[in-house]
Amino acid sequence: MADVNRGNRPLSPHLQVYRPQLTSITSILTRITGNALIVAALMIVWWLLAASTGPEYFAFANGFVTSWFGDLVMFLSVWALWYHSLAGIRHLIWDNAKMLEIDKAEMLGWMVVIGSGVLTVFSVVVLW
């Protein structure tokens, strides 16, 4: 016999049941940064194509890329690149079945978050 109360209960536990964990948030952020890096790469390709098109179009593209918005996108892209790289290293560690215990996985998550911030500041301040 069919369960008549099936429509009154959730199909699976969702956001209202689970609290966000650092490992899940950092995993989601890894996917977001990967997609955001595509946008930054397209902006750089557009800038390079504008440079090969002509001085007027390059002036327009260069004005956009060097504006406050372009600078913000480039700064966040540096952070996203460091974050995505460090998260990839973390996943390589996990792929080798290392540091999968909860406390060590959380430590790796914090290392990715803090490390990406430190490396971004280093890259922008020292290498700029």
Draw up the topology in text.
Layout: H1 22-53, H2 55-65, H3 68-95, H4 102-127
Helix pairs in contact: 1-2, 1-3, 3-4
What can you see in these coordinates?
The protein is 76% helix and 0% strand. It is mainly α. It has a single domain (21-127), classed as 3 helical TM bundles of succinate and fumarate reductases. Helix 1 packs antiparallel against helix 2 and helix 1 packs across helix 3 (68-95).
- The global form is extended
Characterize the biggest β-sheet. none
**In terms of per-residue confidence, which ranges show pLDDT below 50 for 5 or more consecutive residues?**
none
The SSE string, one letter per element, is HHHH
Mean pLDDT: 90
Based on helices, strands and strand pairing, what is the structural class? mainly alpha
CATH fold category name:
3 helical TM bundles of succinate and fumarate reductases
Q: Going by CATH, what is the homologous superfamily?
A: Fumarate reductase/succinate dehydrogenase, transmembrane subunit
Distance N to C terminus: 70 Å
> Strand-residue fraction?
under 5%
Helix share bin:
over 70%
CATH architecture field = Up-down Bundle
Q: How many domains is the backbone divided into?
A: 1
What is the CATH first-level class name?
Mainly Alpha
Question: How big is the Rg?
Answer: 21 Å
Given the structure, what is the number of helices? 4
- Number of beta-strand segments: 0
